[in-house]
Amino acid sequence: MLTAAGGRLRVRRGIGRAVSAAAVLAVTLLTGAPSPSAAATITPVAAAEVCAANDNLGEIATNFISRCRQASIRQVFPGQHYGDSLGYIKDCGEKSCRTAWKLLNDNRFKK
What we know:
mainly alpha; two-stranded antiparallel ribbon; 2 strands
């Protein structure tokens, strides 16, 4: 069985190599292979850039914490802000928002 994960195909157990190669070929033919010039212009993004709070202001805090922070942050993170966007937490003037923003940017909790 083929599954798409993060833009790439994974082959699960029980499928022969011939079947998986044919499936990859079919997907490539349907979606089109990237040109060599386009592949040369793509630059890899460092994980630190993807997990910077300032670069994810539209993301909900609980999703950002799950993706980019250690679980121990949940012990001290203000619970009323789990459903708020990072942009709201950054611009909010409340004390709990300032605490939440500092924790989201604290290096102790980075994965």
